[in-house]
Design goal:
This protein is α/β, with parallel strands linked by helices. Helices cover 42% and strands 15% of the residues. It contains eight helices and eight strands, in the order E-H-E-H-E-H-E-H-E-H-H-H-E-H-E-E. It has an eight-stranded mixed sheet with strand order 3-2-1-4-5-6-7-8, with helices on both faces. Helix 3 runs parallel beside helix 4, helix 4 runs parallel beside helix 7 and helix 6 packs antiparallel against helix 7. The model has no long low-confidence stretch (mean pLDDT 96). The structure holds NADP nicotinamide-adenine-dinucleotide phosphate (NAP). The site of NADP nicotinamide-adenine-dinucleotide phosphate has 30 residues, from helix 1.
Length: 295
């Protein structure tokens, strides 16, 4: 990593993204820059002021509006930052759209899939070439993101899939969600599960292509799982938060992993929780009709 390091985190005005900004700003040096991005300018301004004023903050923190459903804006920001700074050291694609158990999943699917999956594809594509040698390209996924969490009929579609194939599968799943046929095809009812598996599949696809140049450079592409964290996104879906982490508690092991030098090649392209790889084929499908809220 370079003397002046740059990090960009999406969906960072609250929750885990915000905690990553604060944590990184505490660990980095005064000449380094952490870019806090989010979709709403006022929330970005407020969160940036809070992070910049935090007692632990050492690095510079700046805010920038980035609605990740605007893939053109993602591409423009990647190009602009690449031009201005010559590259980026740490990129974390973290944003998620909140869903409520009170509305049918299909009514919430489009925004959810656009933010979680469309944006992941765009972030990987646009920021991939901008990450400096030795940098980090990270997607915040979940332990639900392993292939084993899906019905076996779906495995061949995601095993060794290219980024284009993952994108096209996400679109056919979206169509099936709207047509009411997704569960007949083996997709779980809770759309968070296929979405997370597809995020990890997208990371694996990009990592497969870059591995040969990234590993000698010490560049890391990976998906990470923060564990259960008490945030606005998780609150409506789980009854018991007694063992949940705070966003700051979740951010600490994520940053330990992201900033570790040298990178562990065994974690390259994988889904990692608390520094350990969650094997791609692990997990088992839940009852396809069950969501955590109706369990
Ligand atoms: N919480 C958990 O237990 C848990 C577990 C496993 C994985 N994760 C993952 O951790 C990540 C962060 O989740 P969280 O729990 O921290 O959620 P959160 O507290 O609800 O934060 C989500 C963030 O994403 C932003 N966002 C929503 N739509 C956006 C858009 N179109 N463009 C840009 N930003 C947008 C939100 O902005 P607004 O404030 O403007 O809405 C907010 O800043 C997600 O990928 C999630 O799947 C969380």
């Amino acid at each position: 990593m370079t003397a002046q390091r740059i990090a960009l985190i999406t969906g960072a005005n609250q929750g885990i993204g915000y905690a990553l900004v604060e944590g990184l700003a505490a660990r980095w040096s005064p000449q380094d820059l952490v870019l806090l991005t989010g979709r709403d300018p006022a929330r970005v301004t407020d969160a940036t002021a809070r992070a910049a004023a935090a007692a632990t903050t050492v690095a510079r923190v700046e805010g920038a509006q980035l609605d990740v459903t605007d893939t053109g804006a993602i591409a423009r920001m990647a190009a602009e930052l690449g031009e201005r700074y010559g590259g980026i050291d740490v990129v974390v694609s973290n944003a998620i759209a909140r869903m409520t158990p009170d509305l049918p999943q299909e009514e919430q699917a489009d925004e959810f899939i656009d933010v979680a999956n469309g944006a992941t594809h765009a972030m990987l594509r646009s920021f991939g070439p901008t990450v400096r040698p030795g940098g980090r390209l990270i997607v915040v996924a979940s332990s639900l993101g392993t292939l084993g969490n899906l019905d076996e009929r779906l495995h061949p579609l995601l095993e060794n899939a290219s980024l284009e194939a993952v994108e096209s599968l996400v679109e056919s799943w979206r169509t099936a969600v709207h047509a009411g046929t997704a569960q007949d095809l083996g997709w779980p009812k809770w759309i968070n599960v296929p979405s997370k598996v597809a995020q990890v599949a997208a990371v694996r696809a990009v990592a497969r292509e870059r591995r040969g140049t990234d590993l000698p450079d010490g560049t890391l592409v990976a998906a990470v799982c923060p564990g259960l964290v008490d945030t606005a996104t998780s609150r409506p879906w789980f009854a018991d938060f007694s063992r949940a982490r705070t966003p700051a508690q979740a951010a600490a092991p994520l940053l330990d992993f992201i900033l570790a030098e040298p990178i562990d090649p065994a974690t390259y392209g994988e889904l990692v929780r608390d520094g350990k790889v969650l094997p791609w084929h692990s997990g088992s499908p839940a009852d396809p009709n069950v969501t955590p809220a109706n369990r």
